[in-house]
Prior knowledge:
The complex is a heterodimer of chains A (465) and B (197).
Chain A: H1 9-16, H2 20-42, H3 47-63, H4 65-78, E1 82-86, H5 89-102, E2 107-110, H6 114-118, H7 121-127, E3 131-134, H8 137-144, H9 161-172, H10 181-198, E4 201-204, E5 208-210, E6 215-220, H11 224-231, E7 234-240, E8 244-245, H12 251-262, E9 270-274, E10 282-288, H13 292-296, H14 312-316, H15 318-323, H16 334-344, H17 361-365, H18 372-385, H19 391-405, H20 407-423, H21 425-428, H22 449-456
Parallel strand pairs in A: 1-10, 2-3, 2-4, 4-7, 5-8, 7-10
Antiparallel strand pairs in A: 5-6, 6-9
Chain B: H1 3-14, H2 34-44, E1 48-52, H3 55-65, E2 72-74, E3 84-85, E4 100-104, E5 107-109, E6 115-118, H4 119-122, H5 127-130, E7 133-139, E8 143-144, H6 147-154, E9 161-165, E10 170-171, E11 179-180, E12 187-193
Parallel strand pairs in B: 1-12, 2-3, 2-4, 4-7, 5-8, 7-12
Antiparallel strand pairs in B: 5-6, 6-9, 10-11
Amino acid sequence: MKETQIQDHATLAEAFIQDEERVNWHDGALWFIREKRDLAAKKIPEWENLREVASQIKHNVISNLHDYLVQFEENLTRNGVTVHWAADAAEHNAIVYSILKAKEITQMVKSKSMLTEECHLNEYLAERGISVINSDLGEYIQQIDNEPPSHIVLPCIHKRKEEIGALFHEHLGSEKGLSDPTLLTRVARKHLRNVFMTRRAALTGVNFAVAETGEYVVCTNEGNADMGAHLSEVQIASMGLEKIIPQKKHLSIFLRVLARSATGQPITIYSSHYRKPRPGQEMHLILVDAGRTRQLARPDFRDSLKCIKCGSCMNTCPVYRKSGGLSYHNTISGPIGAILAPNLDMKKHADLPYASTLCGSCSNVCPVKINIHDQLYKWRQVIVKEGYAGYTKALGMKTMAWTLSSPGNFTKAGKAGRWFMQNLPFMINNKFNPWYKQRELPEGPEESFAEWYAQNHEKEEPVYK
Amino acid sequence: MNSREKILQAVLKNQPAASVLPDISMFGGNKSEAVQQYLEIFKTIGGTALEVADFAEIKTYLQDNFELTKRTVTTLPELGDMAEMLSQTVDPHTFEDVELAVIQGHLAVAENGAIWLTDEVMGQRIIPYICQHLAVVVSANQVVPTLHEAYAEIGIGNYGFGGFIGGPSKTADIEQALVLGAHGPLSMTVFLLTEMS
Ligand code: SF4
């Protein structure tokens, strides 16, 4: 992996925005997906009800997780699947290694799994002589470029087709200068078919794990999870504890909202329900904690465990769209990454909750109604309290806290801010204000909405009492 | 204490007070428009769906639209004279050269185009994924409006593997350009058979 971990989001984003044409294209590509999500959602009159119910089911999962995990394990065992428990990334990786070693397997194919990216499984296995190939096209492209995914659904959304053509030329020997997406996909299809045909082991992620039946569901558009799994003699699934859902019928809710939120499709092309091994095949499932029980203990942040990894909070986020996923220096980027990462390592990810304008767009689109922007704000408070905020951020944070602490202060700050913008713009527009970098300040309005409303509607009765 | 016990103990200690599951019985769609909706939606996904009266019509369509000189496999005895009946016991890798697979689907979902299949009708699990072109025959009676009715019908089930398949495999990973035929089939055809009804 490229060493990007040492720099913070602001520095990495600054590098990304140097290329204005690319930033605008990236911004537009993601907004286009956000619009497709809106169209798909609007076609379902009961959409908001589905979100509400999805959120409530996930709440029930979080509050009964112990019993569901035990039930899921029992059913898996009954179905002939071997269950493993991993407290952290190291234990997860060691389990995968021991399964492969027992079968003397040295090559594995893997479909999309953010969890194994988070665990750095590929690097760990490579050090032990086992090669892993990521079979999702976007993840494969990121892997040959030695970069982590920049988006959980669209791993190489930040790359141009010419760059992908150059990578394929170098690694797959395709024609130089090839940049047509269809032709490039055909090149990868041919190469990866050979991979599927020759790998004895396949690892997949898990989208939903049904406690009631012990089956787990994997959603893809490419068919790569199934190509790997059904040709393998050893099938491994890695999942975070929070992927549990109580009953089979709840899949109808989650499969209805997942793809519509992610890409605007009515459903992913493949929603595969794995329950029992085929004759002669071994199936393993690894339940991974890696910080999840710690997050469960944080009342302000435990709702982040409801996430179904649709990516729509990223597509809609103005900061994500303009800074790119890699600037978050965490496997899961964007707004959801910024509320999950501080739980994993507060010091290393102290900057991420600041990579937001707190506009709330993420919370508005989230299919399981996570209060993402509230959590971003709350993380800032925790980070300051624990002493992890850098100097400029701490200052900005204090101002923000003061601004938002009471409506009175908010009004004062607004008035002062408008006065500054009209009379002394250089006070805001200066290099000591990190917010001003790369931004043109709009002209400040003469009066705020509250002032305007007070003047124009003074005598009207408020409708709420 | 091993990891399992440690994790379960931490979960028990940290999980919030129990909350009840919501009722989801009010969700569902309109059965009377399901077939029409299915035909339209499946087209927008990049697949081909058509209503047919009988297997003779299916055969004619396949002859006109596919290269049947290449390897064609099926699980449907009605097509045994034009395709190889697929073996449930051979090594799945041997299906790599399958050009067209024609199999039966249990039910079709109008709102999203997806067909529900289990290993029983797939013959072998790899079949609908490894073939270059996939064709599925479903009874027109078995088109349900939404996933809610689909799961009500599927119930707990007794399959080892089951899946929804909703169109040809696709990717948009390269600059968001839609490409049909990522790793799975390049095309998918669905026959809604009225005779089976
Ligand atoms: S937080 Fe919500 S919107 Fe973001 S990826 Fe998770 S489920 Fe999707």
